[in-house]
Amino acid sequence: MCAIEQCAPWDVVHDTQPRAHQAHQCTECSRTIRRGETYRKIHGLCDGYWATHKICAHCDAAAQWMMVVCDGYPLNSLYDELLEHWRDGFRSAGLFRLIVGMRRRWHDGRDPVPTGVGALARQMLGQVAA
Ligand SMILES: [Zn+2]
Ligand SMILES: [Zn+2]
């Protein structure tokens, strides 16, 4: 079951891709986003609370899998969601690489940023019965 279905939508959201002026921690893999790296910043009001999420380029790329397959995912649970879908029967070497890469925090950001994630997800959707 897709966790996004239980999520309240954002009431206000600013979704930007700034360059880090100082070190931040990735909301999803918790690696350090270093000064000078471009990251995804989601700041907004959701369910009565203001929140800011900073997502590293690697996790942002991996999140495309969730965007294509499930139309989203609850922030701060990308890893759990990818794993959950793996357990639900979405199996491929590409998805496995994303899960393992994330678990290793992308080798502290030294791994290449995953590419072709959207295409991978669309291909997998074609293989898995709804
Ligand atoms: Zn799903
Ligand atoms: Zn990350």
SSE string, helices as H and strands as E: EEEEEHHHHH
- Mean residue pLDDT: 92
Helix content: 25-40%
Q: Care to count the β-strands?
A: 5
Please tell me the total number of domains.
Answer: 1
Strand arrangement in the largest pleated sheet: 1-4-5
Bound molecules: zinc ion
Biggest sheet layout:
3 strands, antiparallel
- Alpha-carbon Rg, integer: 15 Å
How would the global form be characterised?
globular
Q: Estimate what percentage of residues fall within beta strands.
A: 15-25%
What's the number of helices?
5
Parts with pLDDT < 50 across at least 5 consecutive residues:
none
Give the end-to-end Cα distance, rounded to a whole number of Å. Answer: 12 Å
Helical/strand content category: alpha+beta
Topology summary:
Elements: E1 10-16, E2 24-25, E3 32-33, E4 40-46, E5 49-55, H1 57-70, H2 78-87, H3 93-103, H4 105-109, H5 117-127
Antiparallel strand pairs: 1-4, 2-3, 4-5
Helix pairs in contact: 1-5, 2-3
This protein binds zinc ion (ZN) (2 copies).
